[in-house]
Batch of 2 targets.
Target 1
Amino acid sequence: MAGVAVLCCLPALASALPVSGTGLTARQLESRILGSQRLTFSGYAESDANFGLPALPAFSSVTPLLDGVSRMRVWEAAPDRWRVDTLSDTGENDTYQVGVNTFVWDSGEQLLTGIYGPQTVRLPRAADLQPAALAVRIINEAGTGAKVGTLPPQRVAGQSAAGLEITPAAPQSTIARADIWASPTSGLPLLVEVFDRGTTQPALETRFLQVGFWTPDAGVLTPQHGAGTGFTTTTPDDFSGVLKNLDDALLPGSLAGLARQPSPVPQIGLYGSGLAAFAVLTFGRETGCQLLRDALDAGAARLTYPDGTGAVASAPLVNLVLVRPARSPDTFLLVGLVSKATLEQAAGTLAAKPEAGS
């Protein structure tokens, strides 16, 4: 019994160990974090999000990631060679990245799906929230104009971690700051906290509870399915769920004062940049009407424009607006890391267009 008690206390003891300063500047730590993409590692991570967006059936796979705890086992050999298992009380979903191809294992369905080809557009997935991936994305999206500073070190996953604070420059961004703690020697991100404006608690926190360097094992990174299980293949377009119902629309060159950026998918308009950006997705009559009904049924506030109707849902970090112009069969979904007022202004412009965003 004494031995069991000692083992149970080890995590608490590790977190209580002293931490030491690193002497790294903010830019030096930032550089090491970006360089950590070359590392091979494995670990166990948990993300905790409190967004509170309405639960839309069309985006049911995303809802658990934005509200609640996601538990993940992570193995990474390279940016395009990794595996992330998402664990739940009812089973697990495993995602394998093998070059440009992706494989997804669903333990409930006992089905392995191979998605062949690069996914230029997809819904968020748990792998996006593991600390190493999220930290690198935040730094890259924050851009050179973001303010960076150091934070006091703390112990994460049994390691002394150096802290980096990133403050976006764009006033439209919903992100007040992002705090990243990483190994001062390897640069591997261990903990990421993202704060909404006007709050003291992070809206999103993801951390490794256990992590270490790892020699890649081909068996771990190779998708497999046993006897009695299924295997199917598809293309990225077919695997996009509701996104395969996107409609073509002629969108304006700017919305709410933010310029339109090049998009890999013509049906999606991207406005703004980095951590102050939003997307405009255009859906045809049937899908769009259903999305609008679902949003209102889930508690989104109704919007009324002189030339259309819509719904708005405001949450920490992410805001969402749906608008259906009176003189168009299309419905526009606007979502991103910008203020609710910015999205409502952009939706009003789309509602006033004579034809489907033309």
Note: The longest helix spans residues 2-16.
Target 2
Amino acid sequence: MNARLSTIICVGHFLRCICSAQVSSTPPRNWTSAAPINAGWEVSRLKLSHNSPEVVRREILDTNTGRLIAKYSGLTDKDLVTVQVSQEPGSSWVQVYQLGKSERAFKVLSDQLRNYVRARQEGHTIVFLLAALTNRAEPSTISDPDLRTIVTNRTLLTVSWLNKAECGTMTNKAGNVASRTTSIRVVDGRTVTNETTHIPQVDEVCRWASYTLVDGEVGWRYFVKFKADGSLDYIHDSRCDAKEYDAKYRKVIKAAEDEAHAEMKRNGSFGGFGSVHTFWHLKKEMLKAKGIEWRSPAELNPNTCYD
């Protein structure tokens, strides 16, 4: 049986078997604290057919979702008695309420529900997230150190869906600026900005690796880079059209890219500031002429600026 089909079947069976969590259509009368969950935040949402605010709101108000997240987070039935999830009357906001003195379930469930909403808004499907919630891999059990680092630092990832794409090294040359880090904090009501510049005294060889993941119509690329001493430098993730990782589209996409580059060289736009947008526009039109709908990184990463 196909691994993903098996996952869907197992998830469906699991959902039918679990009992109800505390979800109500009205807020509780007596509560200690409340945390808002905004399932309709349009600014950051990647607008796809499966992640409208109404759909995501129904999911986080579903008792089964709460139970899965609770199990994933190590919460017990006793813990769940101390929280309630309700939709604010006449509002798109959902609230998590703390009942009584215990804060543990309230804090954990609030954070994990926000993580769930964020993942749905970023474009992940419910099938992917249910698989992540029901098949959690402890980082210590992952033999690949690069993948282990990503999973440790990124929540709600289905490990079996990640594929290693590339790996290698890059060198920070001695005497050159390798990185700049800016931090902003408030001290006595005033904003203080600090910038740290790293200039290595000797050449530094730093390791990196990238992984790809396809979830529905969206593809993800996770890029992890390590410092010279082996510690984590940063993890960057970005989205692309899932067709980029589909073997049956590889040749036609490459042909469209070559044709777009050739056209830009003819009209003098190749290599100019902002030319990537011209490239994506041409690539989109050329693929559309072949009956292929393709979305650019700018469309799939709405909060990223490209030039």
Note: Confidence is low (pLDDT under 50) at residues 5-21.
